[in-house]
Each structure stands twice: as structure tokens, then as C-alpha cells.
Specification:
Length: about 55
């Protein structure tokens, strides 16, 4: 997992095993039975330190 947070890998693996968490790149598969949808995109910092939200808007 490319995110460092102590204990995160164990939490993610446990919730995947219990069918409470899944990941997909397919929009149709991702939303068909979803109660909550997270959309993740890059928001790199600009030279001023502000987040680049161009992929969001």
C-alpha cells in the first residue's frame, strides 16, 4: 500500500476479508451496490503550497 500510516495495512486487509471494503477502477462496478463512494485523484502541491485541484474540478 503506497500510504504510510501505522496499522493501516492491517485495517484494510481485515475489512477486505470481511467484505466491507473493496477497490476498483470500473465506475459501473464501483457504484452499483455502493452506499459510499470515494473518488481519489492526485492533488499535488503547487510552489505556494496550495493543493492543485484541477483533477477535481
Amino acid at each position: 500500500m503506497p500510504i504510510y500510516e501505522p496499522g493501516l495495512s492491517e485495517i484494510v486487509l481485515r475489512n477486505i476479508a470481511q467484505n466491507r471494503l473493496s477497490f476498483t477502477t470500473s465506475i459501473a462496478d464501483g457504484i452499483k451496490d455502493a452506499e459510499i463512494v470515494f473518488i481519489c485523484v492526485g492533488t499535488p502541491q503547487s510552489d505556494t503550497g496550495a493543493a492543485d485541484l484541477s483533477q477535481v474540478w
